[in-house]
Every structure is written in C-alpha cells, then in structure tokens.
Give the backbone structure.
Amino acid sequence: MSDDFNMSMRKFLKQVGVTSQQAIEDAMRSAGDTAGKSYQAKMVLTIDGLEMEHVVTGEIKGRDQ
C-alpha cells in the first residue's frame, strides 16, 4: 500500500478514536452515576463505494465516582 493511503487511513482512524472517546465521555457524564454499571457498545464502519461494513462490539464499564 502507498504512503498516501497509509497516512490517510491513520489520520481517519485517529479522528475516529479521539472523537469517539470524547462522545463516550460526554455520554457517561450526562448519564450521572454509572459506577458498577456496564454498557454494550457497537461501532459500525462503512465505506461508500467499497460495499464494506465492519462491526466492532464490546463493553464499556461505568465510571467510578
């Protein structure tokens, strides 16, 4: 793969990671007391024109107070 491809992919994935973490933290703060709770999470990545869909699932544990 080309350097341009690798750089653009890494830049996109960094943006996904940073903005997703901010959104999750905001949601957890808005939810209030989440200590001892866990939440099922799902991230869906699609790429138009490639007929691609990638799904990642996991668990996010609530914040301790």
In short: The mean pLDDT is 94. The radius of gyration is 15 Å. Residues 3-61 form one domain. The chain has one domain: 3-61.
